Every structure is written in structure tokens, then in C-alpha cells.
Amino acid sequence: MSEATHERYAQVLDKASGDLTTAAIATMERDLDWFHDLDAEHRSWISLIAHAGIAQCAEWMRTGSAPVDVTSTVFGAAPRGLTRHVTLHQTVAMVRTTIEVIEQHALHLFGPEDVEDVRRELSSYAREVAFATADVYARAAESRGQWDARMEALVVDAVVRGEPEEVIRSRAAALGWEADGTVVVLVGAAPPGPAGGDGGVVDDVRRRARAAGLTTLTSVQLERLVVLLGGVDALHDAGGAVVDAFGPGAVVIGPGVDHIAHAHRSARAALAALRAAPGWSAAPRPVLADDLLVERSLAGDGHARRALVDGVHTRLSESDATLHTTLTTFLETGGSVEAAARRLFVHPNTVRYRLRKVREVTGLDPLDPRGAYTLRVGLTLGGLLASPSERIRPSL
Question: How far apart are CA 359 and CA 363, in angstroms?
């Protein structure tokens, strides 16, 4: 095809661009249901895109299908925010409609001897516009993804730092957090480099959480990985769903809270437990922050001390003074039921009965080494922190 022919085709499209744009918009209004739901501003932007597309088609004809920047010339006039209101599927339909309108008018504009050549040029141009459309939406998605990643990190940081609940609530809402039910925070070491960097770690956590039906927000903070899980039914199950995404070492599950705005409470306990986790080398993975109350208390966590005193000393004091005395004696005699019975002048079965009651009241088993250790520290702290009137007097 000669340069003169290309120029003639381009001039024809230039002259007809206004009429073709009008025809394309009219066809969209008739055939595309979604077009009626757009406001006047967005319709005007689509009209501008259609006109730019037809003008660029004329330039395509003029240059003989030489490469042109379709992305900037066709879509550059519209605001970037348009991709949030017009989907990729709708944009493809818009482009297809515009090309079809040009093809329908080709016979009238160019004559029968030129129709086939024009349609071949239009086919090449349509392919170029399709690639440009995909590029526009891919860049928009990438930009939104980067914004979401930054916002996600900000939400997690706000939770870890214990910022005001309204700040956490508003940032989570901006990110689209809609999880109902219990929310928990998990902390542990981030996996080493080969896991794919921060993005790879976050994607890994998302895949695992999605498979378990959980909502997640994740952030890598230097060597530490922090994961918020929403929609949790069972803490151990939720932790087990994502634990393999963490690096080596302890992984701690904070206590459940009722809303992401209160997640800083779960994060505070989880972080304190992570710092104290080396004190329990046999801890399971993951481990509940509440199962590390002893180590947290010894590490100086005031919240853990109060929780341990309330869960052991106070409960036993309010339940039955004989339970407190029996447990103390049992622990001081090296965990021997018979030795405790002799010192208390009761039958061994009475001691066993009272120890079962201790387990019912506190949730800790005195016959289990870990339970006995926790109970002993709880009683010791209770004796240190209790007022004189609250201290238990020996009782059989």
C-alpha cells in the first residue's frame, strides 16, 4: 500500500471522526447496559476516549501501521481514577464498539475497492488498542496494589504500636477490612531471604489464610513477621494454618479480641510472650501467649503477673482456702500426694480430690510438670502482691 493511499485513508477518518464518535456513543447507549449507570462526567470521559481512539486510528492509517504510543494518546486524556469506575471488561466492550462502528461505516467512507484493506488495518489497530488497554489496567492494578501494601503495613504498625483505636479502625476500613468474629495477632521470626522477600512472605500468608477461611493483614518488620487474622474460631487452628509461613523459632498467638480496633491488646501480649519464649525451650509451635504467663512474669511483664495472680492465687482464694493450702503443701513436698496427705493429716484420696478441684478452678493440672510450675509461680506472686488481709492462712 502506497504512502498516498495511507494518507487518503487517514484524511477520510479525520474528516469523519466527529460523526464516528457520535455514532459510537449512540451505539454504546443502545447496546451497553452499564453505560446508562455512569454519571455525566464519566460519559464525557468515555466520549473523549472514543474520539481520541478514532483520531489515533487515522494516525495509524497515515503511518502505515508504524508503532505509535496508543496508551498515552488514546487513554492519556482520561483521568487515572476512571479505571476505578469503568472495569476492564467494560473498557474492552467500549473499544470493540468503537472499532465495529468504524467498520460499519467503512463501505460508505472508503468505497468497495478499499474496504478490505481498511478492515485489515483496523484489525491491526484493534489488536494494538487491546494491548494498550491491558497495559493501562495492569499499571492501575499495580499502583493500587502498592498503595494497599503500604496501607496494610501502616495498619499492622498501628496495631503493634498501640495507636488509638479510632486510628486503627479508620485505616482498616480504608483497606477494606470486613472480617467478623475473633481477631488474633501472631508474631514470630520472618523467614529468611529465599522465601521471596517481603512480598513473597505476605503472599504466602495470604494463601494459607485464605485456604483456612481467614482474613489476614500481614507485615514484615525487619526480622519480625506480624500477622493479624480475622474470623477466627479456634486459636490453635488459626495459628496452625499460617505457622509454616514463619521463619525458625517461636511463633506466638496473642489472645483473641472482638474487633480489629482492639487488636493492639492481642499484639501487646503476643510481643511480650515472644520476648519471653526462650525461657520455655519445650514450648509448642505455635504457642499461646497465655501459656507463657510464667516466663512473661519473670521477664517483667506486669500484665502477665496480674493475669497469673488472678488466675491462680485469687481464684483459689475465692473458691476454697483448703485448695490453696493443699496445693501449697503438695508443691512443697515435691509433688507427692502421699507426703502431702501425711503433712495435712488427711487421706491421699482427699488430696487427689482437692487437686482435681484445683484443676477445675484454675484450668491448670498440678500433676502435670508445666501446670505445677505455673501454679507455683502464681502462688508465689500472689503471696508477694497480695495485701495482708488477702493472704491465705493455713487450713486443713
Answer: 5
- Taking the C-alpha atoms of residue 319 and residue 233, their distance in angstroms, rounded to an integer, is 30
Instruction: Give the position of cell 455525566.
Output: 40
The pLDDT value given to residue 75: 58
Which grid coordinates are listed for 140? Answer: 492501575
Residue 136 predicted with pLDDT over 70 = no
Instruction: Report the amino acid identity of residue 91.
Output: T
Sign, CA dihedral 262-264-269-270, equals positive
For residue 56, which of 110, 2, 114, 99 has the smallest C-alpha distance?
99
Confidence of residue 196 (pLDDT cuts 50, 70, 90): very low
Q: Would the pTM count as exceeding 0.90?
A: no
Cell of 176: 477494606
pLDDT attached to residue 97: 83
63-77, 179-193, 302-316, 337-351: segment of lowest average pLDDT = 63-77
Classify domain 178-296 by CATH number: 3.30.70.2730
Cell numbers at residue 119, please? 478492515
Strands (E), 190-322: 215-221, 224-232, 251-253, 287-288
Q: Which helix (H) or strand (E) holds 82?
A: helix 82-85
Which pLDDT band holds residue 194 (cuts at 50, 70, 90)? low
* DSSP structure class, residue 227: E
Tell me the per-residue pLDDT of 71-107, one tens digit each, with 9 for 90 and over: 555 555 555 555 556 666 677 777 788 888 888 887 7
Contacts of 21 (CB under 8 A, 6+ apart): 47, 50, 51, 54
Domain-by-domain residue ranges, the chain? 3-143, 178-296, 302-390
Which CATH class for the 302-390 domain? mainly alpha
Give CA separation, 95 vs 53, 59, 134, in Å. Answer: 8, 17, 12
Strand partners, 229: 184, 216
